[in-house]
Structure formats: structure tokens, C-alpha cells
């Protein structure tokens, strides 16, 4: 199975590295001409994944039409651009493996719903889990969830993509895999704020625990299964992203906690902190559906409502006591 990768950011490049392992030709579409040139001429993505030597079996292109030669695509654009990029590609009926993490802001759709509308004839799978791109691209071990409603497709993709250092667990719970990856980015911003504000390790752990309760409430409301939310793509990725400045979402939160303005932090960056786009839509859906998500609402109030960290913190801490149950 020849794999194509749509998106030449850090994660698309790392996935191309996984796909090319063992000498398998892999085609990567990138938006930026300089990324295409750097990969083809120097086997490096100096813009988004500097310092990691890339497999020479990866070839980059700026022409989406060339991806017609591939049997399946790993789709790795930022969540808000997935629909428009897919609309420009030669879709056909090839499987799409969605590797981005987010919710479409305008429509409130999960990414498999976006892909289903954009590519009605393509079977859809989702790949998600604790995966800092630079670690995966350097061959360090991790494990991920691969969700496909067609179990034969899930197995076929697992066989093609898995490596000893890139262990894949298969499920049919697409919504569960997507919701974990989308919600954890917002919670990582909150954990970064705790770090930047110097609130301590206890506060961060408490936030991970209560954040996971929010993720679970939201997931169950959308048909996700508990074991998926408590697995690699949910809790696993939540713990990773809430613990390290290697996370763009955590770093964004840390800057906010240190007193910098969210708009200034966001305008400075070339890389994507998906939680900043997911927070408003997630908060909106939770309000509409009556799902209690105080941490997500707090992040949204900070990012889009102009609230101060102190005000939001005070509101969270002065909530009436409640039972620990979901
Ligand atoms: N970086 C990681 O470690 C990692 C790991 C797992 C999942 N992800 C997810 O993968 C997705 C892509 O993130 P990334 O880290 O590869 O990106 P990145 O932050 O490294 O790079 C930004 C990407 O956005 C693209 N982009 C900017 N404007 C665009 C436009 N108008 N149309 C289409 N693309 C545009 C750029 O071409 C580039 O590929 C995100 O949803 C992210 O959450 C990232
Ligand atoms: O850098 P972040 O916060 O986008 O996190 C990257 C990955 O999603 C970690 O699994």
C-alpha cells in the first residue's frame, strides 16, 4: 500500500518518516514551497521539524494531484483547514486516515464528519495518541489508537503503518479517538496556565483529573466509549500534553499564565496550537448540550472573552462543592 501524507507540518513529516521506514516510497504534500524544496534537496523539514534527518524515500510535492498515485492518505492538516484542502485533492474512494486533532469551528463537526462530507466515497480511519512529532520522527517508541468502523480496514492499516517503535492499538470507536485528541489540547492550555502562574504540581494533577472528567462527560454525550477515552488517544495524550513545554498548547497556556496576552502569543506563531481553535467551539457545544465543562469554559473565557487569569481562577475555585462522580 503506497501512502500519501497531506500536510507538511511537524506531524505530517513525522508520519511520512514512519510510513517510509523500510524503504517504502512515501509522497508528502506540503503547502510551503520551501518545505518541499528542503525535503527533496536536503531530506529535512527545516521549517517545522528542524534537526531531524528524514528518510530519502520521502518525496515532497506542492501538487495535490500527484497524491492520486497513493492507495491511502494520512490527512495531517490543521483541523480548520482540512475541509478546504480535501476539496482540492483527487479524492476518489481511497481510505483517509485522519491524524489532526480538533473540531471544526464553524460547523461544530468532528473531523470524521468533515471528511465524510468532503470525501463521501472514502472509508475513514482516525489515528491519535501521545505523539510529539520530533520524538516519533527520531524513532523513539510510542503507542497510538487507530480507529476504523470497518475492522478489516483497521487491521490492514495497522499492518501497513505499525513499527516496533510505533505500536498501534485498533478500535472501532472513531468518535472516542477524535474527542480525546481534541479536548486534551484545551486542557493542556489550562495546565500551561497553572505552570506559568506558578500554582504548583498538585494543582496541575488536580486539573488533569477533573479535566479528564470533562473529557469523559463530553465523549459519552457523543457516543464515545469510556475505554477509548481512558486509553492512548484520551488520557494517554492528556497526560503527555499537560506535562511538557514540548506541547505547543501547554506553552501557549504557560505564556498566558505568565501574563502575556493570548492574541499576542497566537500572532507570534507559525505552528498550530489547536486548543486555541477548539476551545470556543467546544465550550459552545458544551453550553448548548448542557455538558458541565468548567475548565474548558474557563479557557474559552480567557482566549475569546478577554477574562483575566485571576478572575477565571477565582470562579473555578469558588464553585460549590460536588460529588466526585461524573
Ligand atoms: N506536532 C505534533 O507533535 C502533533 C502530533 C499529533 C497530532 N498533531 C496534529 O496534527 C495537525 C497538524 O499539526 P502539525 O504539528 O503537523 O503542524 P505544524 O504546527 O508543525 O505546522 C503548521 C501546518 O499548518 C499548515 N497550514 C498553515 N496554513 C494553512 C492553510 N491555509 N491551509 C492548509 N494548511 C495550512 C502548514 O502548511 C503546516 O503544515 C494538528 O491538528 C495537530 O494537532 C500534531
Ligand atoms: O504540541 P501539541 O500541544 O499540539 O501536542 C502535540 C501532540 O498532539 C501530542 O500528542
From TrEMBL:
Keywords: Cytoplasm, Lipid biosynthesis, Lipid metabolism, NAD, NADP, Nucleotide-binding, Oxidoreductase, Phospholipid biosynthesis, Phospholipid metabolism. The active site is at residue 184. InterPro entries: 6-PGluconate_DH-like_C_sf, 6PGD_dom2, G3P_DH_NAD-dep, G3P_DH_NAD-dep_C, G3P_DH_NAD-dep_N, NAD(P)-bd_dom_sf. Its main location: cytoplasm. It catalyses: sn-glycerol 3-phosphate + NADP(+) = dihydroxyacetone phosphate + NADPH + H(+); sn-glycerol 3-phosphate + NAD(+) = dihydroxyacetone phosphate + NADH + H(+). It is found in: Cytoplasm. Catalyzes the reduction of the glycolytic intermediate dihydroxyacetone phosphate (DHAP) to sn-glycerol 3-phosphate (G3P), the key precursor for phospholipid synthesis. PANTHER family: GLYCEROL-3-PHOSPHATE DEHYDROGENASE, GLYCEROL-3-PHOSPHATE DEHYDROGENASE [NAD(+)] 2, CHLOROPLASTIC. This is Glycerol-3-phosphate dehydrogenase [NAD(P)+]. It comes from Sphingomonas hankyongi.
